[in-house]
Automatic annotation (TrEMBL):
Free-text remark on how the cofactor is bound: Binds 1 potassium ion per subunit.
Binding site residues for K(+): N63, D123, S159
Protein name, UniProt field: Bifunctional NAD(P)H-hydrate repair enzyme
Cofactor names: K(+); Mg(2+)
Organismal lineage: Bacteria, Pseudomonadati, Pseudomonadota, Alphaproteobacteria, Hyphomicrobiales
Highest rank taxon of the organism: Bacteria
Ligand binding ((6S)-NADPHX): 62-66, 127-133, 156, 258, 321, 375, 442
Enzyme Commission number: 4.2.1.136, 5.1.99.6
Amino acid sequence: MAKGRDNWLLTPSAMGEVDAAAAASGIDSFGLMEKAGQAVTAAVLKLFPGGERFVVLCGPGNNGGDGYVAARALQESGAAVALYHLGDPSKLKGDAATARSRCPVPAEALETYFPMRGDVIVDAIFGAGLARSVPPVVVDIVRRVDEAGAPVVAVDLPSGIDGRTGTVMGAAFKARHTVTFMTRKPGHLLLPGRLHCGSVETVDIGIPFRLVEAKDVHLFVNGPQEWLAALPTTDATAHKFRRGHLTVFSGPATATGAARLAAAAGLRAGAGLVTVATPPDAIAANAAHLTAVMLKAVETGNDLDDYLRDERRTAFVLGPGFGVGPKARAFVTALAATGRHLVLDADGITAFAEDPQALFSAFADGAPRLVLTPHEGEFARLFPDLADDPALSKVDRARQAAARANAAVVYKGADSVIAAPDGRAVINENAPASLATAGSGDVLAGIVGGLLAQGMPAFEAAAAGVWLHGEAASKAGASLTAETLINHIDRWH
């Protein structure tokens, strides 16, 4: 399926290459800056029509050039405008120098700005390409603006946010609104950058989109366009065996709830049959709560071997409430050896903390059959070197982890990143804060398992599962629990 333009993400370096390609093709680069600055002006006047004074803060590069265009346009609209610059504006080059030369608004040094009542700030100091800590003068200005409570409209990205990683580089404005150009950048979605952007508006300033497509970095915003074509469909010939059989492993009698949540979610996600495979001592506890979900005693490796003789049992979830130890590792190894698809979550991930390579080796061959769903702590247990590398973004970590494990990796969080071994990655943005509740991760594992059971490839099942999980949470409302969340799972169509 063709990608929607709103779902493209480019890193700042890739966007810089697009800008250069546009200029090399004969497009007037200052004309692009003019359109960018005018778009910022339109957004500011629309959002703050009663602003008493518009204060434009300009930096030493092209982001500052956009600011000079915006200052000129705001003055031409009849607004009161004040202009402040970082560094020596006489050293500006190229389009930024042209923009400054055409701006009639007198400018003062940035450090002399103190917010006044009624000010609306246009932040054009640094753009998305910032990769170093902001200078002390910017730290001071950010503090002054925060203390004053003045609203900020950011140009491209709030100054102080690294557009590649979403990291705060010393200090950063918290914008009410951000205007970016052509595509969003990872820093608009990754935390904590997302929290600084406010609402984000993406403006087409006239660069042919084929130049964006040529710089495809295989990174998109998660949504149906990424996986809908792989989502199984049903028709009049469908029956439960054709819709796949999902098995969820239960923990002991004192820890059965997580498996039941995953099993119910898998059934709701469309699996035709779902079985909870349980130790004998947990049969009564599980049977008291299961209806449409079946129950099977599986305690030992021999029990599992017998269970796997039915080749229709193709997809499994192991981890929620299962326990950490040699049994978990043995069961995972057995599933891998028989070619099964597996969602490994929670305890299942932690079980391999002492020897992650044993897990990776078990699933090393062929198309990805493993989906890993770690949160930050679990990710660090399997990939400690990646977790400790400050140069890597969350996208970088997820991609490298997926390649190492030959697995689809769901690196969980409010900014979940889903990555495939071939380098494809998506950032999820539809997860409400209400998902921070006990059991919601078990529900996610079950949704992904249910989609795997129906034949979706690992990456597509993982991406779809995360998105459907977020949609269900939005429908369930702010007071959701894991149990009520399940009732709102609905296959998108």
